[in-house]
């Protein structure tokens, strides 16, 4: 990512809601993470990363990354307060600021993680292809991306999707499953992409914009193998 692209990405994330995103926040996780190195993208206030740290156990490690420096600070405070072992939490849990499209800024090296976990926040990426490419770069051989997200049967035009992304609306910014898989496999470096735990879902609350009325959405886990 060049300097101009990075400035555009930073501006995009700076426009997003500071108190958290609307949409799906169920924090669905893979079953067995013990001993693994896990990258949590879009960690926000750190609650999910703390849960992941419990799952990986003393032999694993979790890095939570968020574009917002304020969120990273809150996540560190959350971890310090939530972990019963006190300062020892830092041995297997850390946080860093970085855009999804430039994880090197957060200290993420090539092939350094077993799993990349993202909640529906991946829908809000400034550049989905760039974010997926960075996730693939971070994964060790045979590692996988686990994206619990929302997918649209018929996505909106790109400019409209981008506006919804800036507003933190994961429904309005949703891609179709076919498009997501195509980007992951054909352009981002993953060898396969499948979907599981699919179910219909409807926007509600602040997500229920007029432009989304009558449209169909599916909540699913995208599992993309490196």
UniProtKB/TrEMBL annotation:
Residues 34-183 form the Methyltransferase domain. GO terms for biological process: methylation. It comes from the Bacteria. GO terms for molecular function: methyltransferase activity. Keywords: Methyltransferase, S-adenosyl-L-methionine, Transferase. This is Methyltransferase domain-containing protein. It comes from Eggerthella lenta. The lineage of its organism: Bacteria, Bacillati, Actinomycetota, Coriobacteriia, Eggerthellales.
